[in-house]
Design goal:
This protein is α+β, with helices and mostly antiparallel strands. It is built from 9 helices and 14 strands. The protein starts with a helix and ends in a 5-residue tail after the last helix.
């Protein structure tokens, strides 16, 4: 199905325009709910949180996408049962779709709940399994990061480029502390222990999508984390690719929508980065 045919459903808006519109609308609404959410529950583990704001924002985005592109498929975090097995299954059921929207309505829910102002809306569109549009929106800073395959990545209307550090020693990295205490967290801790003494420093802001956007913008040299989902990664991965960075899984295989253990960087440090993770057995 061509973009032109699909767009004709409503006034010919481009995929990217719809993605930006969804992210901006959802983000503004989420911001008004900061400190005002009324329901908080846990999902896969005690650390895996969800509020009515996550669910409301996802519904808002799903409805808006559906209005413009009623024949497209949709994969959103809140439409999937918690846990890694259910996530993998949900992705399998839609990954062959011609057009697939991949959405995390609030990436950084823990931060949102605590009023720590670092969370984002992440929206990607994949065509036959390849991400062609990626938008990450930080409503607290009003920063919208957007990329289109082959056309570059932008923030505040300016083209983004990854940073220039050449070695791990001068790198600022980021990671997260996965909610899965049995598998992903211990592996990530091994990587952390191995990397801390070898880099300039490590940050953990609590939104994977925003960390990816920061690598694209040259604010971080790299990021890795185990056990993430397609909706945490898809948009940010395109931002980095279109900003000249490198995206693989922690073992160095190319990114695809099923990758859960991610390593991204400005490219210059990538081999060294993966080598340290592998030596620490932090990848499997
Ligand atoms: P979330 O806020 O959308 O859940 C922080 O380490 C990163 O991990 C965040 O991007 C967070 O996204 C994500 N995350 C939190 N719980 C998770 C879980 N159970 N499985 C996978 N990713 C999770
Ligand atoms: Ca989320």
């Amino acid at each position: 199905m061509s973009e032109r045919f699909d767009s004709s459903a409503v006034g010919g808006k481009s995929f990217t325009a719809v993605a930006i519109n969804c992210a901006a609308k959802a983000g503004e609404w989420i911001k008004t709910k900061l400190g005002n959410h009324t329901s908080l529950s846990t999902k896969y583990s005690a650390q895996d949180l969800v509020t009515e704001v996550d669910k409301g924002a996802e519904t808002m985005i799903r409805n808006l996408v559906g209005t413009h592109f009623p024949h497209h498929s949709f994969l959103g975090e809140e439409g999937v049962e918690p846990g890694p097995e259910a996530s993998t299954k949900a992705l399998q059921s839609v990954r062959d779709a011609e057009y697939l929207w991949i959405v995390d309505p609030v990436d950084g829910t823990t931060n949102f709940v605590h009023g720590f102002p670092f969370f984002s809306v992440s929206i990607a569109l994949a065509y036959k399994g390849e991400v062609i549009v990626g938008v990450v929106y930080d409503p607290m800073r009003d920063e919208l990061f957007v990329a289109e395959k082959g056309k570059g990545a932008y923030v505040r209307g300016r083209r983004m480029a990854v940073s220039g550090e050449q070695t791990l020693r001068e790198s600022l990295l980021a990671t997260g502390f996965p909610a899965d205490p049995n598998y992903a967290l211990p592996l990530n801790m091994k990587g952390l222990q191995a990397l801390v003494p070898r880099v300039r420093n490590i940050r953990s802001g609590g939104s994977a999508a925003l960390h990816l956007a920061y690598v694209a913008a040259g604010r971080l040299t790299g990021f890795w984390e185990m056990g993430l989902n397609a909706w945490d990664l898809a948009a940010g991965v395109l931002l980095i690719k279109e900003s000249g960075g490198t995206v693989t899984d922690v073992k160095g295989s190319p990114y695809d929508l099923g990758v859960r253990h991610i390593a991204v960087s400005n490219g210059h440090i990538h081999d060294e980065f993966l080598q340290v993770l592998q030596q620490a057995e932090a990848g499997s």
